[in-house]
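Protocol step 4 of 5: obtain the predicted structure for the target chain.
Materials: sequence only (see below). No template structures provided, no constraints applied. The aim of this step is simply to have a reference model before the mutagenesis design in step 5. Sequence pasted as it appears in the construct record:
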Amino acid sequence: MRKKPATVRIARWSATHPWSAIGLWVVFVALCLFLGGAAGTNKISDEESGVGESGRAGRITASGHFIEKPEENVLISVANGGKLDVATARKAAEELAGKMKALPEVESVGTALPSPDGRALLLPVTMKGDTENADTRVQPLLDASAATEKAHEGIRIDQIGTGSTAKGLGETLGEDFKKAELISLPLTLLILLVVFGAVIAAGVPVLLAMSCVGAAIGLSALASHVLPETSAVSNVILLMGMAVGVDYSLFYLKREREERRKGASHLDAIEIAAETSGHTVVVSGTTVVISMAGLYLAQEATFASLATGSIIVVAVAVLASLTVLPALLAKLGRWVDRPKVPLLWRLTMRSNESRLWPVLLRPALVRPVLTLVVSVGALLALALPALDMKLKQPGSDDLSRDIPVVQAMDRLTSAFPSKGTVHQVAVRAPAERAGEVETALKTLLNRTEGQELFAHDQTPTIRASADKRVHTVAVGTPHSPKSDGARKSLELLRAWVPEAIAPVQDAEGAVGGKVAQGVDFTGHLEDRMPWVVGFILLLTFATMVIIFRSLAVALSAILLNLLSAAASFGALVAVFQNTWAEGLLDFHSSGAVVSWLPLFLFVVLFGLSMDYHVFVVSRIREAALDGANVRDAVRDGITRSAGVVTSAAIVMVAVFAIFGTLSMVEFKQLGVGLAAAILLDAVVIRIFVLPALMTALGRWNWWPGNLNSARRGQHAAGSDETRRLRLPQPVPAGATQYGRRPSYGQDSGYGQEFGGQQQTSSREREYAPQEHQQPYALQDSYGPPQGWTQQEQGHDGRPDL
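Step 4 output (structure tokens):
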């Protein structure tokens, strides 16, 4: 007797010990959440996240151990934007300064400064404590500003700073994600209700996915103490966890239901689902993990953090589908199909073959070369805009202008440009050279005077560390971060700083800041991209060769996924580098794509696309191994998997599209990019390109292997039990057996009709009750059943029907 695959052995134990499996899973999730909460999250610091010269500037600054105090900028202007009454404004500033000084959260209040155009006053306020939790302590200051504004009619008071900006953006984003969660869960449940037609069956994948997200967030907090975590990780875990968690459960649950419909017992159906869909889940999860691991080669802290979070949540989702899902199905039994939604239930239980999918597949099967040329041409045309892709780091100019704190930031930078885009100059030298360093920096600042590329509303302040080894100065520019002026000012500073500090012995200098970080990050990605992409392509290719024993299948998988990714990049550029979709998606176009997004999108898409590819091609190969020709195998494999793939794709597209409604442009681009890619992959690639390519290749699909050899190995070279169980069932007395090949249709190739009598397949017989297997138990396992003649046998030992 052959040894069962690990997925089957695990599923059988879980199904026969359901309470133990469920209890262990609950303990596992609770333990992850408890340990993650107790350990806390170790966030990425500036010196860890930077690359290139800006990263060096961050590390120089950090070595100075400056005490950073949260600062607030209170802007006093006229409500309607008109000319400011200076006397009234100064009276309001004095009153507000008095209120601020009386607050325990305030350390000091500076002198009110007029703007160069005379339209505003700026009151600087320094808070006590550190910058980490300033947003939780800033509310009394905001209340004081609001009260002063109310007491002076016609005066507008804006407060922008470390705490107030973080609080304003945090509240907006918090509402965004809360809305996304409130929409995504009911929407996912609704889609699954349509798929299963039963409430419990729809709820199981969602419940499991949520538990996976919770466990992964706890584990990622623990992992952050080895690899520091970026703030976006929890959002990526939610995005990936809901998508793959629901998909993996969907694959498993659909197959288990399919086998029960054919007459398998509940336990047998779970085992068959574990051997087929469970194996697919493991392979799919492995390809996603391999793809995400490629991000480590980017050698950048943010990508390493995103990779770690994604790998954890995918691994947890695979573990859940192999362990606790069989236990839930075994414990629920027939209750998994309750309560039924009448109309939807009847639609999901239709036994006749779908009429839609054969019609959609007809062009690819009848005219494969023409369909391939047209569909590939359309995807390449959609990919063309990607050639003009521009990259930039996200900044304040990418935020929605409807957010109140963003509007206040715009008014502040308009009145005081030095508070907007700022370059950070950092110099490190021996302490005895401190005087020379200050002289060099003053010389540098003198060169910026009179230059239109730099701001002149305030005199920059040179700061020195306590040990006099590190000096920093912030140099403002009146240009927005995305503008050419900001980049030109950065280029000038980076040319002037080495010249300024050249006379200082052993001095080291660098220019950082938001603009510098964007430029350096983009350049770093361009250098590392070939390594990441090459790693993913090579390991994915090797994985597909191992799974399907075919170079052709592996190569076609790589090419199709590259085509799908290129088309999604083109759509991303067309939407976000232009202004036509601003009103539709509620964003302000920066004329560029967020710099970290293309590489992350490519990695995620390559992994997720393999889910569908492995699932569909596995079904096609099943049909081919059962004797169908290539055209029939492609048609039947895709038709049989179409419902599951389409349902999974709809869930993913729905979850990803919700992220397109968020205010942060990077999440908006991430959601739209992923949704477009999955939609293209599930519709264009799976309906037109893949079937057309496989039909055109014919027997070369399995090159360099031989499918006939695989059949012989499957039917003749296996164990005695395998060979015995692959023999057809005897035809019951009175039944007529027509001499024709099996039809591969809705019943997934595991039960073919012969003259109206159901003929069960090898896998059905393998898991069938013993009384069904008894007729063959006493026969010679190497030969056909008694009564068959040699002429009735096919080349593989099966009857030639």
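Step 4 remarks: DSSP finds 28 helices and 13 strands in the chain. The radius of gyration is 32 Å.
Proceed to step 5.
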